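Quick one, tokens below:
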């Protein structure tokens, strides 16, 4: 017998009042958006100023739409295209679950581009501040995956192997926790170190590139322990869908880091011809 840990009997529902139900997964999204908003407000005010706090407040709605719409559309396209082609209306059934990080990332990038274009802000400088806090959401999301007992790992004989209730009797890697540690905590620490260095902040796009490349590496490593999606299995060369989708992120991230240069876009609130740094607004 291989020693194994039984999966704790977590209730995926955090709060239930009559017909009103709040799940841990929903709280992870809400917590990620609230904590991210709070952190970006402070990071955006660091020199060179990327946005006012009021502009960050406005962006929260754009980011939320990008996360939800992009994440759902990405899941439909990348993970279950055949199913949703036969029943396209089910793509609107968000309560059934099914979100893709890569799709959500694409949605937020589009929201960033549209928002900064409309507000005449530096896309890369503002993106750096946003990307620096994204791992907060990744950490909370992976913890929610673990609580739900979903996206479990491959069969293993390590002493901390865990038997998940819907994954058969074999012990498996708790890969959700591995990914929470790599994509969440470790990447967050690295990006916070980078964003708090003035010389790095001045190179617009470097932190965004570090996030994309760092996430791609962490995801590709994590996928080595995670069970592939049942409807997809292993793909080209034994890779998983998560690994294949991470390759473009890695390449774009490395390119952004290599080309990062000081941004010459006027800071929010600056007067034309005035080289002085504007004072950030107070909450």
């Amino acid at each position: 017998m291989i020693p194994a840990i039984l999966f704790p009997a977590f209730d995926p529902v955090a709060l239930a009042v009559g017909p009103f139900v709040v799940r841990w997964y929903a709280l992870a999204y809400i917590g990620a958006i609230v904590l991210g908003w709070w952190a970006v407000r402070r990071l955006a005010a660091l020199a060179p100023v990327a946005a006012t706090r009021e502009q960050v407040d406005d962006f929260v709605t754009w980011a939320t739409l990008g996360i939800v719409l992009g994440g759902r559309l990405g899941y439909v396209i990348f993970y279950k295209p055949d199913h949703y082609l036969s029943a396209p209306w089910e793509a609107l059934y968000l309560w059934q679950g099914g979100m893709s990080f890569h799709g959500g990332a694409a949605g937020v990038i589009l929201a960033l581009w549209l928002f900064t274009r409309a507000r005449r802000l530096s896309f890369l400088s503002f993106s750096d501040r946003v990307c620096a806090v994204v791992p907060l959401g990744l950490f909370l999301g992976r913890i929610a995956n673990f609580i739900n007992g979903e996206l479990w790992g491959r069969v293993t004989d390590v002493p901390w192997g865990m038997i998940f209730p819907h994954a058969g009797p074999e012990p498996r890697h708790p890969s959700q926790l591995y990914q929470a540690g790599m994509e969440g905590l470790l990447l967050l620490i690295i990006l916070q170190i980078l964003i708090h260095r003035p010389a790095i902040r001045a190179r617009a796009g470097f932190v965004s590139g570090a996030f994309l490349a760092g996430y791609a590496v962490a995801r590709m490593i994590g996928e080595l322990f995670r069970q592939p999606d049942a409807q997809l299995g292993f793909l080209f060369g034994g890779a998983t869908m998560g690994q294949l989708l991470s390759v473009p992120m890695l390449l774009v991230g490395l390119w952004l880091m290599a080309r990062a240069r000081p941004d010459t876009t006027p800071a929010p609130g600056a007067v034309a011809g005035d080289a002085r740094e504007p004072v950030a607004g107070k909450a």
